[in-house]
């Protein structure tokens, strides 16, 4: 079981690393900066692969009601904003800078939980969110490769990611699973970006793309679509199988490795101030690991799958008996 979880974590890290570096290569090295076409292609590949996986029985997609689909429509609009603005920002910003600004969306969700939902928020979480916000605000002033357009699109990406997370959490519980939601996102994004490619001019400007007939371009685009699909699938599996603390640890590891290797593959001018604010942004993720570490150590809170299945069978058998049993005798576990 531990080997399976480790394999899942390494698969997620590999997909995360390969997906971001491939996207950066297409956007910054080949300079294919036509997001309606590039992201439309990625969502087309992702949608087709997910549909094929459903037909082959590898994943389960529920036939949702029209009301459920319409309810999820605002989230799909935000998803289009995430991938479109993210593509524009990543084409102009270094990968570590982009990841810090992407992580800053946690500030929106933390503030919404504290101020709107009135949830109890630990002081350490608030402090880490403030550190992350300070890093995201101060980083542009210390960036020797400052690009105003890149930071503009990163700001839009920041608000779309934060709003998407808030909207997802506010819709819980929902009849739509994570796979259902992503399937709808793929379909809506593919249709909307296809229609938007003409008004934005991307369709005609792509005709003059210098690498249009190069195998490296087509290979990179195909790889980006396939890797994006496997990244989505591994992320869903990671969140469904692993505990929150373990999931946070793998995400932290994937982002650190991706940011580090990107410095070796792509040009980025580092100053002491830039390194300092990048480190402050990473401290936010590290704080989440420190907070979750006691939960990871306390194995008594969890049970194995066999124990859980046995507990479930016992509970179902009790329901078939007269209701004079002692409820305190029911086995109680928390599934890892």
Automatic annotation (TrEMBL):
Localization: Membrane
UniProt entry tagged with the keyword Transmembrane: yes
Main subcellular location of this protein, as a coarse class: membrane
Lipid bilayer topology: Multi-pass membrane protein
Keywords per UniProt: Membrane, Transmembrane, Transmembrane helix
TM region positions: 123-144, 150-167, 212-235, 247-266
Transmembrane in keyword set: yes
PANTHER family per UniProt: SOLUTE CARRIER FAMILY 35
Name of this chain's protein: Transmembrane protein 241
